[in-house]
Amino acid sequence: MLTLYCFGPGANSLKPLLTLYEKGLEFTRRQLNPAAFEHHEDWFKRINPNGQVPVLDHDGRIITESTVICEYLEDAFPDTPRLRPDDPYVRAQMRIWTKWVDEYFCWCVSTIGWERMVSRMARQYTDEEFEAYVRRIPLHEQQVKWRRARAGFPQEMLEEEMRKIAYSVRKLEKRLAESPWLAGHEYTLADICNFAIANGMEKGFAELVNERDTPHLIDWVRRINERPAAKKMFAETPREKLERPGQPAPPAGTAQTAHAEHAAPAQPAARSA
Amino acid sequence: MLTLYCFGPGANSLKPLLTLYEKGLEFTRRQLNPAAFEHHEDWFKRINPNGQVPVLDHDGRIITESTVICEYLEDAFPDTPRLRPDDPYVRAQMRIWTKWVDEYFCWCVSTIGWERMVSRMARQYTDEEFEAYVRRIPLHEQQVKWRRARAGFPQEMLEEEMRKIAYSVRKLEKRLAESPWLAGHEYTLADICNFAIANGMEKGFAELVNERDTPHLIDWVRRINERPAAKKMFAETPREKLERPGQPAPPAGTAQTAHAEHAAPAQPAARSA
Fold first, then answer.
1. What is the reported pTM?
2. Are B130 and A101 in contact (CB under 8 A)?
């Protein structure tokens, strides 16, 4: 039996979610609420001591780290549709891209996403409530990130992250201008893992991602969104609300559109949550 | 035919070097001189536009990124000794460790290594000479790192990196107290990739890595150093000299011992060079 502990269909949670849908694997989704800091509760830290989603439970064996989970699904279910090339060279190209998103692209987009969305949520708590939640976070770096989100990230950091995002967008556009998919001619985990961060950037970073400047990137995002597995995943997986539980919902008329509901900048990067 | 472009047997260059030796694969070593910024020369940037080692050339196909190269060698040469577990769960544990060293452990050790060793080398050039070299570096982040190395890293950054190193050492010790190898009962790429950074820390970070505080980590480093492949690699692969080419060698009596010659803190992390 497969159980996936995750947030909504964005950022790092999207990676194993879309991989499971693409492979047609039956699984139970156990969706946590980041606004209630549910991933830092003791019951969940017994599953992943780092207090991070996504986590895969496969017959009682626990696998952490979104990209590792995706490769695990390839290793454990070789008879389902393949998202990893057979050719060792093309497979290496795939891994260069999954590594790059984990080490570079996801972090800059995540900081801006946190500044825009998580900061507001974090400010809905009193100082005392917030500190009580932060003390439960196992990883030092994540405690720092939550405190920064509440206080507001330093301007210098936001500018550096925006520079990195612009660089990332140019890098993706350049690659997708020469090749239909990131690793080459096949749709692979490289596409899924980068789509997890890039999806929705046309809305959240319209000055960088648009038909004029990045036509190939936009076409690639569209092609992935149109895949039956992606459509099914978005239809079946609710996006989390970044509101303090029990708080009144935003006034009518401010609800986001269906597209915006899985916009990348509105999602905290799950690994960093 | 296999050609490996690399620095000496430390940090990221050690990963594919030791993997090649463990697998008994014939290869040509093309060792670059970091003190001459050889990896930023045009001929090398035509091989890897990022200007980073290690790089593997396999019959004209170029594979970059040290950890990706190691997995590639497993994929491309399945009939050589295996360094990747067959069991998908254990393989995932291996990947959690190779990912962690790339995203966390290597960076903190690298900064301290640069502060101690690369800084001195960078100061052997005039301002003008140095800036001419730095301008050839393709990656912005690496330009910043070289300039910081020359100016001296900010104290706050050094303290934060030392905190991360202490955390990393405790994490490795805890794991190695419960398991002979990082991924479990088998020696895998997880051990090779973490050894690449941890080897020599008993000398460079003696206050953290010592018989009393980290007996299991020390035993693990010793066990890897005693493997025939590691002995052969260290015997055959000269360590680079971090001296400006043409500069006088250090005075007699200051030469490092054989052990110190592959000490981690004395090595720049290749990916970051």
1. 0.90
2. no
